[in-house]
Amino acid sequence: MKVDRVARALGALMGLAVGDALGMPTQSLPREVIVDRYGPRVTTLEPAAPDHPIARGMAAGRVTDDTEQALLLAQLWIERHGAFDPHEFARRLVAWEEEMCRRGSQDLLGPSTRHALAALVAGESIAESGRYGTTNGAAMRIPPIGVAVDVRDLIALVDTVEEVSRVTHNTGIAIAGAAAIAAAVSAGVSGASVKDAIGVAQEAAVLGSQRGYWMAGADVATRIQWAVSLAQSHGRTDDLLDVIYRLIGTSVATQESIPAAFAILAACPNDPWEGCCLAASLGGDTDTIGALVGAVGGACCGVDAFPTSVIEAVAAVNQLALEPIAHALLNLRDDAR
Questions:
Q1: Which element (helix H / strand E) includes 311?
Q2: Could you tell me the CATH number of the domain that includes residue 195?
């Protein structure tokens, strides 16, 4: 069967945006509050509540830093024809946050990225600036690299993930998480199912854990395997969401949010839209977990796995034109062969 790579590449990018937008109004909220406001499952795009700690004032369908920073990386990758400039990337991240502040947004740079950029401004080298970055910022913006770099050379893919992560997240923990997401997306674009993509993700996480600086923390690959086994035993139930929220964890820590995303994917291997809805219902870092579920699920199942009305709404609210980006990233994938 011929693989429709364009549909899968577009699925990865649009899935990222859809999952992000679904999780926008529930991010940073406890699961109990989400259930009280939206019911056991979030099933529609919702605006942020007026009292939301981060997203207040954001309209239904609006994406957050996850999608915006991923597209920032994609644009830089396309402009430089797959050659990464860490200083330019850092400059664009700073400019992005300045623009967010001008808009009055509270959805700004994450803790690892902010610390790393401050270190660069203070004169630290690229090799040292991200040495304490362990949160999920590297993973949330890596999906375009999964589209642009072929997973068949897994070491080369992890090399690329390390290269683009180093400036802000130069630790084995963060690189492992980002490598898992990039590998799963890349495998999906090549035709893999979610089940097979999860297996490749675990291999990539093992390789990624050996890169960057060592920081104390649970092994990402082992926690992905554990999270997937929990999902397989619980199925698509409210109990699964409670297990992910209370046991696996849904914070910005890479060792929590990336395994949480793979648990959702394992529970919904053929339905990334339902996966994104479950992710938005979790509590905690729902926008990032939803974005990662959408990116991997979209890469494996294609863009048509998401409701047309939702795709159109998210594209319109955010003025997204993702097809040219998908094509450009695929061209870079082919050029590297």
A1: helix 308-318
A2: 1.10.4080.10
Rg (CA), the chain: 18
Provide the token pair at 272.
């990334």
Whole-model pTM? 0.96
E strand or H helix that includes residue 103: helix 86-103
Q: Which is more confidently placed, 290 or 91?
A: 290
The number of domains in the chain is 1
CB atoms within 10 A of CB 165: 30
Q: Dihedral through CA 65, CA 46, CA 284, CA 240, nearest 10? A: -130
Q: Give, as one character, the DSSP assignment of residue 26.
A: G
Domain range holding 182? Answer: 5-335
Compute the distance between CA of residue 104 and CA of residue 149 in angstroms, rounded to an integer: 35
pLDDT tens for 254-291 read 999 999 999 999 999 999 999 999 999 999 999 999 99
What proportion of the chain, given as a percentage, has pLDDT over 90?
A: 81
Identify the sign of the CA torsion 301, 307, 308, 312: negative
Mean pLDDT of 89-107: 77
